[in-house]
Each structure stands twice: as C-alpha cells, then as structure tokens.
Design brief:
The structure holds 2 protein chains of 2 kinds. Chain A is α/β, with parallel strands linked by helices. In chain A, 36% of the residues lie in helices and 17% in strands. In chain A, strand 10 and strand 11 form a beta hairpin. Classes of the chains: A alpha/beta, B alpha/beta.
C-alpha cells in the first residue's frame, strides 16, 4: 500500500480539490453505473473479435464522476499492484486522459491487459466505498482502466515510463508472462539491463497462448510489450533457461540476478477411464492450438478438432474461455460440466454471463466418471455423476458429494479438461538448490520473493500454482523491489 | 528477421567477454543438407547453444514458416565446436515436407531445445540398439554414448529396402557389430528388425535393448524382449504442440499411468508402454 502521506499529498493537489467541489457527493452517488457496450451474442459467436467494446468518452466521463475521491481510498488495498485509483479516475474526470494512463503505468506495466482480464469485482471494486458503505454498485474501475489505456494507445501518444540512468547490471527473466513482464518493467525503471527469455516462439505467456482473442486481443499484448522494449528491455524467444542456457551460462554471460516467472504450464487431468481417447484434451492444448498456433485460420498448419458437441470440464475462467472458443469454432452444443453449483464457480461473473448469452449449457453439480470412444478411439459419450453440496471443505466452498445411483450418459465428440494446472517442472528440475514443494511450486520469501538460491527470485504461478494475471504481476513487482534491495546490499 | 539466438562469446576473439557482455545473435541457418534417401534429408543447422547443451536422447521443436506447426525432432548429432546440430527429417506430411524443401543458406523460423530427458547412459554390459527407418538417426548419439560408457553395442538397423538404411557408416564408427535387416532382402538380411534382435538374444546375453522407430516396430521389439526378460527402452515420437509440458497432446500410458512424452520422456520402459493407445493417438488428426 502506498504511504498515507503520499496519497494525501496527491489528493491535496489543487486540481483535485477543485474537482471535488464541482459536484455534490449526493449528485455523484445518484449517477448510475455505466454499462459496458458489447457485441451482440448472435453476432459474436461467429467471430473472434472482442466481446466488450470499451466505453465511449462520454460514458467514461460520466463514470469518472461517480468516484468520490475518498479520503481513505480503500479501493487501492484491493489492487495487487497498488494503482493510485482515485488519481487516475480524477484525471479522466478533468479530461486529462493521457495523464490518467500515465498514472496507471506508474505501478502497472500492463493496464490495457488488466483493464480487460482482472477480476475487479473481487479486487479494487470489492473495496470501493459504494460497495462497502452505500450498498451500491462499485465505480467501474476496470472499465475506466481499460478506457484510459485504450485511449492512450489509439491516440498515438504512448507514454514510456521514465527510467533511471542505466546501471549496467544485467538481470535475466525466465518467462514473458504477466509476472515476468511486470518484473521486467519495474527493473527497467530502476535502470537495470533486463533480458526476458521466452520458451515459446511468441511473447506474452498465458496472455498469448491462453486467453482468447475475444477477451484479450493479441495486438493489445504486443503494444504493451513494445512499450517495455522502448524502456530498454530485451526479449529472446525460443530460449529455455535451464535447458538452452544453463545456470552457469547465465553467470558467465554476466547476469547478476534471475527472476523465474515460468508459470503453471502443466495441465491437470482427472485420471478417469477414457481420458486419453482422441478428442479429449487439456484446455491448454485446445487454447494453445487456437490462440498461439492460430489453428482456426485455414492457412495454419496446426490442426484442430471442430467438435459439434463439446464438453468443457471445470468452472474457472479458462473453462469459460475454452467453451466459448468451441462455440465460435462451430459447436452446436457447448457445455460446461462442473461438479459444484454455479455459486462456487471460480470464473468471473462476467465470463459466466457472457457464456450463457452465447448459448453455453451448464451442467453444474455434475462430474465426469468415464469417457467412451468409437472403434477408432474418438470420444463418443461421457458418463456424468450427479452431485450435491455437503459441508464446506478446506477451500471454504461446499464439498461436492456424489448422489448415489444418479448418473447420465451425454453424447460428445470433444472433451476439454480444464481442472487446473500445476507448475511447470522444467525450471525447478533443472536448477540445483531451489526448494520445491510437493505441489511443484518454488518456495520463496513472502515479502521479497527470494528463493533459497540468493540470486534467484520467483513469482506468479510457479510460486502460487495457478492464480490470476494480476496476482502474478503483483509478485513481479514485489520481486523487483526485493531483488533491487538485495543487489544494493551485495554489490 | 530478428528471430535470433543467444550464444556465448567464444565464437570470435572480437567478442571477448569484456567487450560484449551478453551475446552474439545468430539465427538458425541451415549449413548442410544431404539426401540420405528419396524422402529422408539430413540437415546441419546452426544452433550453438543447443549444440553445447544437448545430450543423447534430447529433442528439439521446429517450426517452419509463420503459419507452421511445432514439430518435435530428436537430435541426431551435434558439433559444439562448429555450433551445429544435425536433424534427420523424413518427408511424411505437410510440415516435414516444408522442412525438406529448405536449402543450405535458409533459416529455420523457430527452433527450441534441447527438450526432454537425456538417455540414461551407464555400463550395462551388452546393449542392442534396434533402430528402424528414420529412427536410426536419433539412435546414433545413443550408440555413441553407450559405446563410450564401455558397453558392447550391437546395432540392428532395419528398413523396408536398401535405400532407406541410413547412416550406416556413422553407426559403424561406434557399434561393435552392425546387423542390417531389410523387408525385401535388398540389403543385409531379409526380415524384420525383430528377427535381427532375436538372433542376437539367442546367441549371447543381452543386458539392455534400446529401440527407436515407428511405433508399431517398437511395439514388436518390446513384445519380443519382454518374452526374454530383457530391459528395454523405447524413445517415443508422439504428437506435440509446445514440447515443454504445457499442453499434454503427447500423453501416453506407461505402467497404467498417464505420462507426458515431452517432459517425462521421450524414453520410457518399453515393456510398460501402452503402444496400442499410442498408435491410436498418433492418428488423432489423420
């Protein structure tokens, strides 16, 4: 959390004081929350264009007036990267949108990404005064973040955060996903010479291979990475730290620190009969084929099954991404199969809403028991167990219990398993001295993100085991702070 | 054209560590191309970092062209001094076809590795290496490493016909004995790879068998050696996308458990591999 004094000083700027006086709080709180313009469901299921179209300038201005510029901006406590939320929103209100974008970039390397994929309703917006005290809908912080970032990009006046004079200290980053990019951005700001090594042939990690175009267009990711390049960050694709270059190579090349943000690249399966049939695959495989390899493009060499009856197993955001992708690839029946009820679904409310609008069927309180295939080994049907909810389990959610004797067969020709991911073992297994938990995550200090090997820091899903873009970015920022402090101490 | 590779500075004295601290950027240029048969091409490719770090059994992922798919190829050999690796490619489809069309001076769009676990090398005693068709190429570094570890190495090279028996001279450099089998009897002995392997087993004590080739061939080699209780390693060549454990397209059942060929393999205890399932899954996109 930024210091109270700093926030207070910013809030006391004359322009902010003047702005607060332009409108009574009662008038502000009476304004309705803006509605995000969307592509119509019957149109969007035939294309991969973004579903959310973004606020108009008029909408953004109106929404920005709702923010009360609180004395104690609790919203910031809900943000893993501590964006100065009132400051950017008030900049929108006074029409200084480029200034708003700059404020975002002070602490957030990827505002256009976060404005689209962050679960704001569980973070900043859940801590908004409107929700906490007025029992009203929160200020649409996420929409406004996206608006400011998009406005800046489209204006052509993209601000590049100021960087400290180059200190010549070389830092390596393993993985170009959200954790690595946030780390790289902060280190570059502090003057370090940062190189990001990516295993795949494209940059962006999960932003690229995982999240579909209709939720996060690749061009958005590319522009944000371009910004990092302008800050001096170097990128190397097709290079796996620990495989292509060893720990010793890194040292020999002069790198003084390494940040591991290699992600949760290992998909979980349920280990039930028939899971290796043709047409049953992980969400990672399905989404990678479509997003990274562009398999839906007829000119792409990478093949993809275009199932007509597609079941996606799981209730997270990735499951929603997969099932909505299947619908766009021509599935007549696209289903979510989830063992708990809709209330326990980890997916964002917006994703569930969008999925329903797109005609996705929800088999909640159902769990697959087995799959059966035809004579060629193609999956043909699945046996589902009906479930009910019992007492809360360790996760705090009510435990699903099978209802004995209640099973149903459902015809399918494609099954996408989206029941979570585990950390990618490639790096932990090839670096000596890293402490790894039984779940495969790397053990780090909570505050500094430093591992047992003192020059190696880690963050994101390789530490958390499967979380969100913004939490990974928060880790990257913490690690940058931690590594900077460690380097200053040792050099 | 900025697809580049980091490599260490030993290439030229100009790039001494003091002068340039990071890197020399090089692309994955094809520096050698040789037709081993009509449809089998041997490529020598600049990839200094991989050449340095790879071991027997490792593979790379190759992508040809901006619309290309990611395809795994096991490394046949490497020259760390020259900074090159050798891949042997059989033209069997769209992607391998595009690869085979490349010539000396062309660049590989994307090349990443080394991937997978290296072959477990030790002095087992007598090792039979049963390679079929283009599988002889990835067998070559294993034959070399096994020989250097002190094993007696007997190579059984099998192919449909004489022209498809590849890399025989290279294998002869390291193997104590080479047995050639062809389906049509046009070279070596007439018969399948299993005939050659069984001949050795009946003649002398074999401590380990390594097999690389078409899945169906490995299945039969495995069934044979199981009968004689000879530990057997098979190097599996499944469909992959990323090759780093991310997608699971390559999964196989080994000893009743699902394994990923890319990170758990590519080599497994052949007697535990469900080859029928693997054969089925190889047809996923046919």
């Amino acid at each position: 959390m930024p210091s109270k004094e700093y926030l207070q000083a910013e809030r006391n700027q004359p322009w902010r004081e003047a702005l607060r006086k332009t409108m009574k709080n009662k008038e502000r709180t009476d304004l309705p929350r803006v509605k995000m313009p969307e592509q119509q469901p019957d149109v969007r299921i035939h294309n991969f264009k973004e579903v959310n179209l973004g606020l108009t300038l008029q909408q953004a201005l109106s929404e920005s007036h709702r923010c009360l510029d609180c004395v104690d901006p609790t919203c910031i406590t809900g943000c893993p990267v501590e964006v100065n939320i009132p400051k950017f929103i008030k900049n929108i209100e006074r029409g200084e949108i480029l200034e708003a974008a700059k404020t975002l970039k002070d602490t957030n390397t990827l505002p256009a990404v976060c404005g689209r994929v962050c679960p704001q309703e569980r973070q900043c917006e859940s801590q908004c005064f409107y929700v906490k005290k007025l029992k009203k809908e929160a200020v649409a912080i996420g929409y406004l973040e996206r608006f400011a970032a998009d406005y800046e990009r489209e204006s052509g006046h993209i601000s590049i955060p100021a960087t400290a004079p180059a200190n010549g200290i070389k830092i390596a980053v393993a993985g170009s996903g959200p954790a690595g990019l946030a780390f790289a951005g902060d280190m570059a700001k502090m003057g370090y010479d940062v190189t990001v090594f990516e295993a795949l042939h494209e940059l962006g990690g999960v932003l690229r291979y995982g999240i579909p175009e209709f939720r996060l267009p690749n061009t958005i990711v590319e522009v944000e990475i371009e910004g990092l390049k302008k800050m001096g960050v170097q990128f190397v694709t097709n290079c796996i730290i620990g495989k292509t270059i060893s720990q010793e190579d890194l040292k020999e090349m002069g790198y003084r620190g390494l940040f591991i943000g290699s992600g949760a690249g290992l998909p979980n399966f349920m280990h039930i009969p028939g899971e290796n049939l043709i047409g049953v695959m992980s969400c990672n495989e399905y989404l990678t084929r479509v997003n990274l390899m562009q398999a839906a493009d007829p000119e792409s060499d990478t093949p993809i099954h275009r199932g007509k009856k597609v079941a996606v197993i799981g209730g997270g955001n990735t499951a929603m991404d997969a099932v909505r992708t299947a619908r766009r690839l021509g599935a007549e029946k696209a289903m979510i199969v989830y063992r708990r009820s809709e209330e326990e679904m980890p997916a964002r409310i917006e994703e569930v809403k969008h999925a329903k609008e797109e005609g996705i069927e929800f088999f909640t309180l159902h769990n697959p028991l087995r799959y059966e295939g035809d004579e060629n080994g193609h999956v043909q049907r699945m046996l589902l167990q009906r479930m009910k909810l019992g007492e809360p389990d360790a996760s705090g959610r009510r435990r699903p219990i099978p209802i004995e004797g209640e099973t149903i067969w459902v015809d399918v020709d494609e099954v996408i398993v989206s029941v979570g991911v585990s950390p990618n073992p490639l790096i932990p297994s090839s670096f000596a001295g890293l402490e790894v938990t039984p779940h495969g995550t790397i053990v780090v200090d909570d505050e500094t993100m430093q591992t047992g090997v003192e020059y190696i820091f880690a963050g994101g899903d390789i530490v958390r085991g499967g979380a969100t873009v913004i939490l990974a970015m928060g880790d990257g920022r913490k690690a940058a702070k931690g590594m900077d402090a460690w380097l200053k101490k040792t050099l | 054209m900025k697809k580049v590779y980091f490599c260490k500075i030993k290439l030229s004295p100009i790039y001494s560590r003091k002068r340039i601290s990071i890197s020399v950027f090089v692309m994955n240029k094809i520096v050698g191309k040789e037709y081993l048969s009509d449809k089998v091409v041997k490529f020598e490719i600049e990839a200094p970092l991989i050449a340095k770090s790879r071991k027997a059994g490792h593979f790379v992922i190759v992508r040809i062209g901006k619309k290309g798919e990611r395809v795994p190829y096991t490394i046949a050999s490497a020259d760390p001094q020259k900074g090159t690796i050798t891949l042997v490619v059989q033209n069997v489809g769209k992607s391998s076809g595009k690869f085979c069309e490349l010539n000396v001076g062309d660049y590989i769009t994307d090349l990443v590795g080394p991937l997978g676990k290296a072959t477990h090398i030790e002095n087992f005693g007598t090792v039979v290496c049963a390679g079929g068709g283009v599988g002889i190429a990835p067998m070559l570094p294993i034959i070399e490493a096994m020989k250097k570890a002190g094993n007696k190495v007997i190579a059984v090279l099998a192919a449909r016909t004489k022209e498809l028996v590849i890399l025989e001279n290279e294998v002869r450099q390291f193997a104590d004995e080479v047995i050639i089998m062809t389906d049509d009897g046009s070279y070596g002995k007439k018969g399948l790879v299993t005939h050659g392997v069984e001949e050795v087993i009946q003649r002398e004590k074999v401590d380990l068998c390594v097999t690389i080739g078409p899945a169906i061939m490995m299945k039969f080699v495995s069934e044979l050696t199981k009968k004689y209780n000879i530990p057997t390693i098979a190097s599996l060549n499944t469909i992959m996308v990323d090759g780093t454990g991310m997608c699971g397209a390559c999964r196989v059942t080994v000893g009743g458990k699902t394994k990923f060929v890319c990170v758990d393999g590519p080599e497994f205890d052949a007697h535990q591999v469900d080859f029928d399932e693997m054969l089925m899954r190889l047809k996923a996109y046919n």
